[in-house]
Design goal:
CATH class of the largest domain in chain A: Mainly Alpha
CATH superfamily of the largest domain in chain B: NADH:ubiquinone oxidoreductase-like, 20kDa subunit
Helix content of chain A: 40-55%
Number of strands of chain B: 5
CATH topology of the largest domain in chain B: Rossmann fold
Oligomer: heterodimer
Distance between the termini of chain B: 47 Å
CATH class of the largest domain in chain B: Alpha Beta
CATH architecture of the largest domain in chain B: 3-Layer(aba) Sandwich
Number of domains of chain A: 2
Strand order of the largest sheet of chain B: 2-1-3-4-5
Structural class of chain A: alpha+beta
Shape of chain B: globular
Radius of gyration of chain A: 21 Å
Number of helices of chain A: 12
Order of helices and strands of chain B: EHHEEHEHHEHHHHHH
Largest sheet of chain A: 4 strands, mixed
Number of helices of chain B: 11
Largest sheet of chain B: 5 strands, parallel
Strand order of the largest sheet of chain A: 8-7-6-11
Largest interface: A-B, 59 and 55 residues
CATH architecture of the largest domain in chain A: Orthogonal Bundle
CATH topology of the largest domain in chain A: Cytochrome-c3 Hydrogenase, chain B
Distance between the termini of chain A: 37 Å
Strand content of chain A: 15-25%
Number of domains of chain B: 2
Order of helices and strands of chain A: EEEHHHHHEEHEEEEEEHHHEEEHHH
CATH superfamily of the largest domain in chain A: Cytochrome-c3 Hydrogenase, chain B
Amino acid sequence: MSKDISINVEHVTRVEGHGNIVLNVKDGRIEKIEWQVSEAPRFFEAMLRGRNYWELQPITSRICGICSIGHSLASLKATEDAFGIEISEQTYALRHLAINAENMQSHILHIGYLAAPDLFGVGSVFPLVNSHHRDALLKIVKLHRLANEMSDLICGRTTHPLTLVVGGFSKIPSERQLVELKGQLNDNKGTLREIAGAIKEVADRLPDFSRETEFIALSSDKEYALYEGVITSTDTGKHIDYRNYRDVLQEYIVPQSTAKYAKHARESYMVGALARFNINSRQLSSDALEIADLFELKPICYNPFMNTIAQIIEIMHNIDDSIDWIDFLLDRGLKDEKPVDFRVKEGRGVGLVEVPRGLLVHDYTFDEYGKCVKANCIIPTNQNHGNIQKDMEAFVPQILDKPEKEIELNLEMLVRAYDPCISCSTHYLNIEFIR
Amino acid sequence: MNKPRVAFFDFASCEGCELQIANLEEEILDLIEIVEVVSFREVMKEHSDDYDIAFVEGSIMRPMDEERLKRIRSNAKILVAFGACATIGGVNKIRNQWQPEEVLRDVYGDVDLKGNKFFDVFKTKAVDEVVKVDYYIYGCPPPRDEIKKVITALVMGKKPEIPNYPVCVECKKNENVCLFELGKFCLGPITRAGCNAICPSNGRACDGCRGILSEPDTKCVEDILKRYNLTYDELKHRFTIFNYRREEER
């Protein structure tokens, strides 16, 4: 097996943002494997300097088009933490609906539009339109539309939400609209099962690759944690002190990337749907667990390609959880309440949220007038870059005898499995180069 | 009739504008009936440099981005600036109030980044500060209806009609209570409409993401500032979320 391989995928397609894969093999010996991030930095940290507290949500929302609701919620939670604001029960419930809607939207986009073409053997969803997979594609579109309509209803808009404000909501849906939404959510559980069935038929194309690693996600006694929880690791358990999140999420710099990497107990860790599944699967709804059974997914699963499957499972949980929250809201009756009153004060606040790609942290320091003097964000994709690199290093030797094109496709699929949001990961960095 | 060949490109942005294409849902199927999408990195592996219409999302931050944009311009018959970052610079221009070296130092510390092309940044530019732009789709993000309207017009060889009247017109039609009455500072009176006043209709003041009107009614602005006891400095600050350049030119 003495062959030469030179793979240089500039700007991996069907991912959010710009990243490159480089693999050099000479005489069967691996000389270089690199996952590179080449996205332009956007300096969000500087942008927030001197901004009023109410401007932080609309600005940080623009870090990412896909997870703008998650950024907004992390931003509001950080601000509310700093000012000591307690949100109402109704706001708490509606924010759960918001985060569920985004998780569904982002996951179905990834499963259907970004990952599935590899499983169906095409370059994009467009060729599927006039193929025998048309039916499956239409179901994916239908579910994607439902998730977006739900975001429109709860957040005023699906990309860059409008109603999410410090201390509450600027506008809430009507009870009639919530009843309609509940009906649609119920109707679409069948749609999701059919999509899961179609993916199951081609799931054997997901490479059988495992590498032991650490998983980190929020966990909560109350629920399958998305909106809130305690930082939890498969290696070290719970870390209660959320303001010292840096003890766990330790970022560092590598020369080939304009985004940071991160590590904790080992040389890398993974966040996202698979990490959440591995840590919290016992709290999934019974219908979500049924989908896990369909794919025979059990914790702890060390195959990163199964992240896409964990996303399918999570969508079912998001639907069930949303129905529960709608019932809760309808039972107690919607109140036309204003955001809670509060006073700005000097200090620091930290907001933690599980967004589609994993754990997101916003950390702000305010002056006495409520102006932001310092900001830091830890983005899920940053936390995954190191794990992608380590996976590549372990995966390549296993597939080295395959044709070059297939190695390339396998490595692209590996990157896509993480559903990286690269623009996110470089939009907020505070790099210090190790020279 | 041959379908026009269409390509989508992204520069410094959140890629939320391109996401609006996916958010057309079932209508994507109609879209690909009338155009042939030949390049769209975010959703397809295939790529071609042979296209008629280029949609460009994002702001231009570096010499390497400028080069790439110029190549796109020379390949395209029609170039459309797509979204706030591309049309007016958007939030990316917030940092233009400082020198690039200052921002780099602020965010990256005292690290020598000389010679690293990824960090070779100048002050953020909108697309038309680098190449000629034929048409503009405004907004952060652009409304899906407007995207459809512009694409349909271009396919039919017509000039897309973009409103040049203030957001207030749409806001009044939606029967909203004026946000100034509710104590908020809204940029609706001077911002280009076309969004169906989506922010005021959701209880949020307009941030001006669609850009300032070509001829804003300055008398009206003065009246509003006076009536609600607001200052010109506050107005200037409101501009700096999406319209840093416009504010600077004033």
